[in-house]
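Annex B, item 7. Sequence and structure tokens for protein A, then protein B.
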Amino acid sequence: MSSGPQIPAFALPALKSLGDLSSAQIVLIQDSREQLPLKFEHLPCVVRGLQSADYSIVGFESEFGIERKNLDDAVSCCMGENRERFERELHRLRGFRFKRLLIQGSRGLIEAQRYRSRLSPKAVLATLSAFEVRWDIPIIFCETPEAAALAIERYAFYFVRECVKRANDLIRGSQALQETITETKQPTKSHKT
């Protein structure tokens, strides 16, 4: 009996010209204040304090951030003092290149009001939409902790892969420029007829 789809190990593109970076391992960071930490199967994860977000990547702490909320926490962040505090958290993520609000649960559970609050589903969804627009932070729903962990691993992998590709393009561009400079400095041979 299969426990679900098999996910291949994450591996960055082979970029030998990057030296030590070509074999670098992606390491996730889980904020030390996370109450119910996720278990990651494909990438290593260290626990340390993060200024913003619940999950990030070593070396990209100010560029990659995922804020995770379970359904009840997400709903409580839509009202009163919790809303003000949560908006300050989202404000700190505004300059990140990659950011997400990951809600562990489903939109359907919000629509069915399957949470511990009297706040209407319409008000919750309207507030989440306002957060998404105001703070430019896409919201994703993952129904299980396993799905949430896998989503974070995939986002981290593709984010780092794009950074490595950019670094490789920089190296290639620099090498091409050096070759052009070398070619123009070589003396030209004159042909006698």
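Protein B:
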Amino acid sequence: MRPKAIRTGILLAGLCVAAVAAQSDRPERVPAPTKEAKVWSAADVKARGMELLKTKANNYSFFSETAYNAELRNLTGKQPVLQHIKRGDFMVILEGGGTFTTGGELVNSKLQNPNGDLTAEGSKGGVNREVKAGDVVFVPPGVAHYFSNIPDHVLEILVRWDVK
């Protein structure tokens, strides 16, 4: 293969990787502060939330570490069912609301990551609860959970950490 063709191939591969990374819904990896406290004012959080709603982005990461993370999330529509093996989820609903389903048996589950977390198409026999702005939710490890219905959007702060 000629050097020019190789360079062109490498350039195209790089552009494809960049395009996929730009479209990713995963929050950016941001280390947690270690030497001093960090404060996000109510105005900061509101501005980030408005930015998520405007751009239809899903996440703003406050920080993300191996065993814990905190993020601002903008959710719309039915969300995938999750079941964490080691992690607990703590959510504060800031805006919007919907039907939050917990428990039950996973339907067509598959391994989500090497930690043993599962994702599924749905669940059978779970408990539905309507949540709205101001509500707080905690989901312990091993409990399936998801927003089964979001009429408009949910803007929430999510803190997830290894409990086990």
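Comment on protein B: Confidence is low (pLDDT under 50) at residues 5-27.
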